[in-house]
Amino acid sequence: MSVYTAEVEPARAATEERPAAGPAYRCIYAKNGLTGVPDAIQSPWDLFSIPMLGRRQIIDGEAGHYEFLSYKEVYDSALRVGSAIRSRGVNPGDRCGIYGCNCPEWIMTMEACNSQAMTYVPLYDTLGANAVEFIINHAEVSIVFVQEKKIPAVLFMMLSVNASADSGMLIEVCLPKNCDHPLRCFKFGSSAVVSFGNVSSLQKKEAQEANVSCFSWEEFAQLGTVDCQLPLRRSTDICTIMYTSGTTGEPKGVILKNAAFLAEVFSMDYLLAETDKSATTEDVYFSFLPLAHIFDQIMETYCLSKGSSIGFWQGDIRYLIEDLQELKPTMFCGVPRVFDRLYTGIVAKITSSGSLRKSLFDYAYSYKLRNLEKGLRQDEAAPLLDKFVFSKIKQSFGGRVRIMFSGGAPLPRHVEEFLRVTCCCVLVQGYGDIGELQPNGAMKIIDRKKNIFKLSQGEYVAVENLESVYSRCPLITSIWVYGNSFESFLVAVVVPERKAVEDWAAENNETGDCKTLCNNAKARKYFLDELNSTGQKHKLRGFELLRAVFLEPVPFDFERDLITPTFKLKRPQLLKYYKERIEEMYTEAKGVMQNGCK
């Protein structure tokens, strides 16, 4: 098929000079100009060395620039590691554990397993020892790859198991320890622990005492070869066993086959093509959401299928913004808690910038929002306002983000709207289980099924929806709303903003540290009133308002097992931890109600 077409020349005046040659030709594919070549690509070798996985190098305790491994380097490493795993007697279909935070070695281990038709079992890096022990044994993991700082915990777990059996035998262990039926797991004779980094001679000795070999990443890779013969891989093979983060008790494993995993990857391509545009080699993805979470595995696998680059965060939330500004990603996937905190910080700065600047911001916000609601694209809604008003906010994410994803829990509507307007990018939510039909026929996600309960008088409560509303109160950072079918009203444990507590104390001539002030009955009453005022403002019904609160000066954290790695509340654990406080709040509230009736 010819790609050239002849153009008919218009009639010319007799005196007009004619071209020296015949009819003019042009390429029909060049209607928008010739395709350019990115400045970074200088030779075909550069196409072979596209940046794939990158992290910030730590020099003298300071994080430097991102340094990347190429696709070729990662491919070879995955083959070597996969071959090395086979050399340890682990065969296609066997299980390989991956335990640690997001890093290049995590992805390379996953791809090593994929190359050898093995099943990888991710473990959240924030899991406690009991959960790790449970998953490794429940999944019958034969070899485990571990973040360097997690090695001591894994070795301690193994040493606690009776590992005196002969080489190659299955060890009988009992997890949890009061279980009546022991699990037959952990092939100590063929198993190994591989560090993402280095291992000490002492750690190697401890591993030997448990009949387990322990390798550094480099040592283990040397056991393999890039010339290994790969087994047949089928769509019906088990790709991964995804364990829950333990929101409601012991982790539960979900088996995903290759076909299901790939269907999600290609669905993501369709989603992006329809929403914005498919990923390309020019895109950079910021790896922040835990790789043990299926959503991030899908996202990173999709990016790799498109030749995009992936940069990993340092693993410390304190440096999240710094990492974003250094990497300057085009794609970012986070969780509602992170987006909510960013929203709160930005709004606080706008509010304190003065009435004139705030008025100008409010005008720009309303103008762009109206245009977005009319159906205009991001780059069409308000380009001048994007440049002169919203550009600084976009810089919080590095300045180049074109699409953001929120996963793990519902993103409050006001936060979602704010980010879409001010960050000048598309925002997509990935979240499931309860929906509410809207008047226009659309489905609105309001909660998860297990987070809906009934009060004693029969009203149903969608608790995550309430927490989303109450979180709009600027005086708090976190809230856990509680109720049950034996009580007629709701109470809550609230983590207040420290400054809000200090401001209240100054205005009311109260003294003491934050913990002391949080125990002050007047302070609790003040925060309760402010929360209910927020609830009423957003049209919560009477039974959805709070009757009592407990002010918690310490944020909900992983150490107390109160939140999941994706920052969702662990409701059973919260109830166990705050059981006495809950009883006190109900007793106090009922006393107030009785006195009021008298």
From TrEMBL:
SUPFAM superfamilies registered for this protein in UniProt: Acetyl-CoA synthetase-like (SSF56801)
MF annotations from Gene Ontology: long-chain fatty acid-CoA ligase activity
Any single biological process term in GO: wax biosynthetic process
GO terms for cellular component: endoplasmic reticulum; membrane
Sequence ranges assigned to domain AMP-dependent synthetase/ligase in this UniProt record: 59-432
Protein name: AMP-dependent synthetase/ligase domain-containing protein
Organism: Carnegiea gigantea
